[in-house]
């Protein structure tokens, strides 16, 4: 018995080898998940729904091969070249799976895709600016625009045909009394299946305020650039101004409105009819002014000084004679 130990070892090795081959060749089923790659989609066709990025595949084969199957580099290639607008049934062909020949594809879940496709369409539509914010009483949006005013959209024909305009995303406007003009760049608010060129526009919003007409007696202020003494007549003018209602609620405009007259340095002594420029609070305009011009009298400064000296001498002589 002791002399046959070599035969016992050999028999054990043969039995182990036979068991390994038999068990390794045993056929088993297993579910694996594989990614789907799509090819052949025509340029004028868009897939709206029905496709899946992954499928479940039941494979059958030797236990060793199935257990060690590496699915990271295996994908199901689906050719969509025959897709047409509308509902399409696309069957998944097991022979399209690049698996070893000893592994059989038993089942694919789902076995087919119900694919809805549509023709791609382009269209030029208007862009509508949108904004958000709470305005104080008497303030309102007077006008708005976008630059550019239109955009070219692209997408499924069913969606594009129903679109006449595309809104922008809302521009935030400062609460209360906004500035006259608010400008900002903002993207378009596009539906999920629609693209646009351009997809960002410049929004311009023009705000205004309710106004009321009031009468103001405005003082005339001289800006004298000449070398002469200047006097103006009249020293006040009557204006009818259109002013914001919130400004009028703060009080009178008498201390907020005036008119400026510029006296040029090249004017000669004498009387000159000059126009004036109103100085007004923001968002205030002049409707009527009376008179349209004022009279500015220029007198050499030496005459003013001589007249002053003469009057002083006369006064002294009068006082002397009285004594």
TrEMBL record:
Which residue windows are coiled coil?
none
Q: Name one matching Pfam family.
A: YbbR
Which InterPro entries does its entry note?
c-di-AMP_regulator, YbbR
Region: Disordered, residue numbers: 298-323
Listed name of the protein: YbbR-like protein
What species is this protein from? Oceanidesulfovibrio marinus
């Amino acid at each position: 018995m002791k002399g046959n130990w070599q035969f016992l070892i050999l028999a054990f090795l043969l039995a182990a080898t036979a068991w390994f081959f038999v068990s390794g060749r045993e056929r088993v089923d297993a579910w694996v998940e594989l990614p789907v790659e799509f090819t052949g989609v025509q340029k004028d066709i868009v897939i709206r729904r029905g496709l899946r990025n992954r499928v479940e595949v039941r494979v059958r084969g030797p236990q060793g091969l199935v257990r060690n199957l590496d699915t990271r580099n295996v994908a199901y290639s689906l050719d969509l070249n025959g897709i047409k607008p509308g509902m399409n049934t696309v069957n998944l062909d097991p022979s399209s799976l690049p698996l070893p020949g000893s592994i059989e594809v038993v089942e694919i879940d789902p076995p087919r895709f119900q694919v809805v496709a549509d023709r791609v369409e382009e269209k030029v539509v208007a862009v509508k600016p949108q904004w958000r914010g709470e305005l104080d009483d008497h303030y309102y949006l007077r006008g708005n625009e976008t630059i550019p005013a239109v955009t070219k959209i692209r997408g499924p024909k069913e969606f594009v045909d129903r679109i006449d305009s595309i809104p922008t995303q809302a521009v935030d406007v400062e609460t209360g009394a906004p500035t006259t003009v608010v400008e900002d760049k903002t993207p378009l608010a596009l539906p999920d299946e629609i693209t646009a060129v351009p997809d960002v526009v410049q929004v311009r919003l023009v705000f205004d305020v309710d106004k009321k007409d009031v009468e103001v007696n405005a003082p005339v202020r001289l800006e004298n650039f000449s070398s002469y003494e200047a006097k103006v007549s009249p020293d006040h003018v009557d204006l009818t101004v259109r002013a914001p209602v919130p400004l009028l609620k703060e009080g009178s405009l008498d201390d907020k409105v005036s008119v400026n007259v510029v006296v040029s340095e090249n004017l000669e002594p004498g009387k000159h009819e000059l126009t004036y420029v109103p100085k007004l609070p923001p968002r205030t305009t002049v409707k009527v002014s009376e008179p349209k011009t004022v009279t500015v009298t220029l007198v050499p400064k030496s005459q003013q000084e001589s007249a002053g000296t003469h009057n002083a001498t006369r006064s002294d002589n009068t006082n002397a004679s009285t004594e």
